């Protein structure tokens, strides 16, 4: 009767593992019922699965919205639950990790309090500096045994750093001056991709964006048209956005060896077994050392030799690693961090837990921590919980009475957008793709060249009311790129200085306010594929995409700006660099991931005035309380940032990833000034110090 849960972060991984388990069942001559239970499971199959499955393959999302709120329907499984296996544990970090940690606490609570079972946890992870500590916090476990002897078959791997060659380029027409530029890394990757395929090497070309995937496929097919026409259809793109049917077909073709290669986003970074891959290409640094090794680990999985080639962009970060490869290969894998004590997220999950089974302060503190009492009081005041008037422990029992029928339906554990734009091929009325609202205007608008599996489509009609783009196939020698900017509008932050933040930390004039994050699109370029030259520029009128969040910020005093300008340094580059430095040191002071907070990144072509401030904002719509946490630490963060950037021995004005470069900069670290950042940080710290000295003297008098 014993049962097990097998938990994956993605549906694609679940499908992949089901195939393997079915093969294993045949080999073991066993008849255990194994079923996937996720959002794609047909409604008519769910009752049978609940009644018969012994090994249930699912994901955190399904535990959150289906299994836990309706746990009585899973009574047979939960009463006999012996094992919980969590694969790709390193993917549970940042805010997604925080939500998953609290879902696992809810699961353990239901298992022990209602069904009397205490399952054993098994975690599988890769590329993590702290696997044991991470999973102990993830599932609130007192002890975990670590097995780290890698017994998987693994051949030698050649790792190449490929810097596109330099060449002379005229700027400003035939009379313009000659400058030395590197050739396009997109073209370089495409030539390498075509070489791999022609030599019979199965290859994945990893690209950071969907658009780059499509461009690499398009260029590679153009090369193969000349050098190996029979291979043109043996490569394709694998990325998010494609309809499920198309993705499943690509996965099957790749697994069965029908495809020689794919251009992919990080959708193929996790452990999907795509059969034997000989080589990986990496267009630009993927954002973390862990991701780079995860991607490179896709090749050479069966004791054969393999190859990984990292092709650099011209930006400072990639060039830093090209000049100092030891900094890349010697750089430690990042730690996985989970903050299961975030008050805002904890409150959401305690409301969900109370809906599943009344909260008992006496026992449930073991699951949710010492702040349970205060969070329950807050939820009571908001009308979500009520004290249970009867029964044992009545004074400490709390029932859910909130406005939502099922509170878990309103708590999004990932940044999943429900509003999407459809892309329709006018010729046959076929749905090509559904694009999330926040990404749609980067890809589709009237006049846009939309790319799907390397094929160019011209968007001829764009209906905003129905969220539909109608396009037709075209043969053009250019692609389009939007002109856009993102503003952070701090609400209620237009004052000089507010009262100091009263905490046990350094006093600071930094403020945490609500903010609106808005992206505006005002035009697009048509860019020649062969030369990368801008052919023309077209105006756009599209509605902005906005969401409410929270920001923490501090003004840069006038004296600091004057000090920067007197040295003839770049003020915008300095404030940008100072903000990056705060982002870089933040994980040393509080639990957050690289994708949780952002800053105002400077575009080299920006002509508008920029606010004179250092600002960090919560990248999660609605905010999850990170800005308030950062505000309490802001004084210490400024000192730590100054110490970090002053002590860094790099000689470049644009710094390095150890000081002012950010691995997640949306403008590729193009406008940075290390010396200006030091002056700005010193100026802000000194201004805060003198401000409070004057204020305290005034208070005494």
UniProtKB/TrEMBL annotation:
Gene3D superfamilies xref list: P-loop containing nucleotide triphosphate hydrolases
GO molecular function: 3'-5' DNA helicase activity; ATP binding; nucleic acid binding
Residue ranges constituting the Helicase ATP-binding domain according to the UniProt record: 1-146
Limits of the Helicase C-terminal domain: 188-344
SUPFAM superfamilies: P-loop containing nucleoside triphosphate hydrolases
GO biological process: interstrand cross-link repair; nucleotide-excision repair
CDD domains in UniProt: SF2_C_Hrq
One GO term describing the cellular component: nucleus
Keyword hit for Signal: no
A Pfam family hit: MZB
Record key words, sorted: ATP-binding, Nucleotide-binding
Matches recorded under InterPro entries: DEAD/DEAH_box_helicase_dom (IPR011545), Helicase_ATP-bd (IPR014001), Helicase_C-like (IPR001650), HRQ1_WHD (IPR055227), MZB (IPR018973), P-loop_NTPase (IPR027417)
Keyword Nucleotide-binding: yes
Official protein name in the record: ATP-dependent helicase HRQ1
């Amino acid at each position: 009767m014993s049962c097990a849960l097998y938990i994956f972060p993605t549906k694609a991984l679940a499908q992949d593992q089901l195939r393997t388990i079915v093969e294993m069942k045949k080999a073991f001559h066993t008849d255990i019922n194994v079923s996937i239970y996720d959002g794609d499971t047909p409604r008519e199959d769910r009752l049978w699965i609940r009644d018969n499955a012994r090994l249930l393959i699912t994901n955190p999302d399904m535990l959150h919205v289906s299994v836990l709120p309706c746990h009585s329907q899973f009574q047979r499984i939960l009463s006999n639950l012996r094992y919980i296996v969590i694969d790709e544990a390193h993917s549970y970090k940042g805010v997604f990790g925080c939500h998953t940690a609290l879902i696992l606490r809810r699961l353990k609570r239901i298992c022990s309090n209602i069904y009397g079972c205490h399952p054993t946890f098994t975690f599988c992870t890769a590329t993590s500096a702290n696997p044991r500590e991470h999973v102990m916090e993830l599932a609130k476990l007192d002890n975990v045994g670590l097995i780290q002897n890698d017994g998987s078959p693994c051949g030698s791997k050649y790792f190449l750093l490929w810097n596109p060659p330099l060449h002379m380029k005229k700027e400003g027409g035939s009379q313009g001056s000659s400058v030395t530029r590197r050739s396009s890394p997109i073209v370089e990757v495409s030539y390498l991709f075509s070489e791999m395929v022609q030599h019979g090497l199965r290859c994945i070309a990893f690209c950071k964006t969907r658009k780059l995937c499509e461009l690499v496929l398009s260029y590679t097919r153009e090369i193969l048209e000349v050098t190996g026409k029979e291979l043109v259809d043996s490569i394709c793109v694998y990325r998010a956005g494609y309809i499920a049917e198309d993705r499943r077909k690509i996965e099957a073709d790749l697994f069965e060896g029908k495809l020689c290669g794919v251009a992919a986003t990080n959708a193929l970074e996790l452990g999907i077994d795509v059969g034997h891959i000989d080589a990986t290409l990496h267009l630009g640094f993927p954002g973390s050392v862990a991701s780079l090794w995860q991607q490179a680990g896709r090749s050479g999985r069966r004791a054969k030799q393999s190859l990984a080639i990292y092709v650099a962009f011209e930006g400072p970060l990639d060039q830093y690693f090209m000049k100092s490869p030891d900094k890349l290969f010697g750089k430690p894998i990042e730690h996985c961090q989970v903050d299961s004590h975030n008050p805002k997220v904890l409150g959401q999950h305690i409301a969900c837990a109370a809906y599943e089974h009344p909260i008992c302060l006496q026992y449930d503190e073991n699951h949710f921590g010492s702040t349970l009492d205060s969070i329950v009081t807050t939820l009571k005041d908001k009308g979500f919980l009520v004290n249970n008037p009867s029964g044992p422990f009545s004074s400490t029992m709390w029932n859910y009475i909130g406005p939502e029928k099922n509170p878990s339906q309103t708590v999004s554990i990932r940044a999943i957008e429900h509003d999407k734009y459809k892309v329709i091929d006018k010729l046959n009325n076929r749905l090509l793709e559904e694009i999330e609202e926040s990404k749609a205007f980067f890809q589709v608008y009237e006049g846009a060249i939309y790319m799907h599996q390397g094929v160019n489509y011209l968007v001829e009609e764009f209906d905003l009311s129905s969220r539909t783009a109608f396009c037709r196939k075209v043969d053009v020698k250019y692609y389009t790129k939007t002109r856009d900017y993102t503003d952070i509008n701090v609400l209620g932050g237009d004052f000089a200085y507010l009262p100091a933040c009263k905490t046990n930390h350094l006093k600071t004039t930094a403020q945490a306010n609500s903010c609106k994050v808005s992206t505006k699109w005002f035009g697009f370029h048509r860019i020649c594929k062969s030369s990368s030259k801008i052919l023309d520029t077209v105006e756009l009128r599209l509605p902005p995409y906005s969401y409410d969040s929270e920001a923490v910020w501090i003004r840069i005093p006038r004296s600091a700006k004057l000090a920067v300008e007197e040295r003839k340094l770049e003020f915008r580059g300095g404030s940008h660099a100072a903000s990056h430095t705060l982002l870089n040191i933040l994980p040393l002071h509080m639990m957050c991931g690289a994708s949780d907070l952002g800053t105002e990144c400077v575009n080299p072509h920006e002509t508008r005035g920029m606010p004179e401030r250092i600002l960090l904002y919560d990248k999660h719509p609605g905010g999850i309380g990170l800005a308030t946490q950062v505000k309490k630490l802001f004084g210490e963060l400024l000192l730590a940032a100054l110490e970090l950037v002053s002590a860094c021995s790099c000689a470049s004005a644009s710094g390095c990833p150890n000081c002012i470069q950010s691995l997640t900069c949306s403008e590729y670290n193009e406008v940075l000034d290390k010396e200006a950042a030091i002056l700005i940080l010193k100026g802000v710290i000194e201004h805060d110090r003198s401000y409070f000295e004057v204020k305290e003297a005034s208070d005494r008098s």
